[in-house]
């Protein structure tokens, strides 16, 4: 009988950085895509800083990145990937705009998946900004162009090939976040993943995988959770249950004492 090889798989679930419309409410008045704001400079700096933090203190490498198609998430992913793949130590760089040389071989794949997208309802997409026809019109090629050159594997098949329908329920969105975390982890069980999504997705990653299903009342910009499970290899691969293995409050996730059904969705400004 062969010996069992045991390892751990880590999945980091991260919220995007500081979005422009929370700092300039008038931006949406003339925006071509008011539901899809970019990051402000502070958001890019924050995301790049988190990438450097991952390099210095995460304790394990990131092998693959999956990201929501919303621009704020794509730009966050770009900054984090620049930091993760930087050739130099980036002590003096604040963001990718400061001229960061990268080695794209350090991170195998960055892919866009609709399953990580924002909750597509009025609780998350503010009414004046939502498309009147419910069509968000994402183009995957344009999304991929935001990510650093050489880091995208466009051959990866998306888990969710289409966006959810406009006015999806909050419960459906939460189920979607839980499902995609599990599906992506099972698809790549021997690799550590970084999923860049929205506040609700990070909250679900904590609530779904803590023993008492701890409620989350707030998720700060670039906050992240870390899920970890054991992986046993003995001819075939078997996986244990995920556990949240990080002090969530130190990574910008605020736990709430109230019952889950009474928690308001973290839609403003948590998305």
UniProtKB/TrEMBL annotation:
Coiled coil: none annotated. CDD domains: HP_PGM_like (cd07067). InterPro entries: His_Pase_superF_clade-1, His_PPase_superfam, Phosphatase_SH3-domain, PRIB5. It comes from the Eukaryota. This is Uncharacterized protein. The lineage of its organism: Eukaryota, Viridiplantae, Streptophyta, Embryophyta, Tracheophyta.
């Amino acid at each position: 009988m062969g010996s069992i090889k045991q390892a751990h798989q880590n999945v980091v679930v991260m919220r995007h950085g500081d979005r422009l419309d929370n700092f300039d409410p008038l931006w949406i008045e003339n925006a071509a895509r008011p539901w899809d704001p970019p990051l402000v400079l502070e958001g890019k700096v924050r995301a790049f800083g988190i990438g450097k933090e991952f390099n210095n203190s995460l304790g394990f490498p990131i092998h693959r990145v999956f990201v929501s198609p919303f621009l704020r998430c794509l730009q966050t992913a770009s900054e984090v990937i620049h930091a993760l793949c930087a050739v130099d130590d980036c002590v003096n760089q604040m963001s990718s705009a400061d001229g960061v040389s990268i080695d794209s071989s350090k991170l195998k794949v960055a892919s866009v998946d609709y399953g990580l997208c924002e909750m597509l309802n009025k609780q998350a997409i503010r009414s004046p900004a939502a498309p009147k026809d419910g069509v968000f019109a994402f183009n995957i090629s344009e999304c991929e162009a935001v990510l650093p050159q050489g880091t995208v594997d466009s051959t990866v098949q998306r888990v969710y090939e289409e966006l959810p329908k406009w006015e999806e329920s909050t419960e459906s969105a939460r189920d979607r976040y839980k499902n995609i975390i599990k599906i992506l982890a099972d698809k790549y069980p021997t690799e550590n993943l970084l999923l860049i999504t929205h506040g609700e997705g990070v909250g679900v990653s904590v609530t779904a995988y803590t023993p008492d299903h701890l409620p989350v009342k707030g998720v700060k910009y670039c906050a992240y959770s870390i899920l970890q499970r054991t992986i046993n290899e003995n001819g075939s691969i078997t996986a244990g249950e995920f556990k949240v293995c990080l002090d969530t409050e130190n990574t910008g996730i605020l736990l709430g004492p109230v019952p889950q059904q009474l928690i308001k969705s973290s839609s403003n400004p948590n998305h």
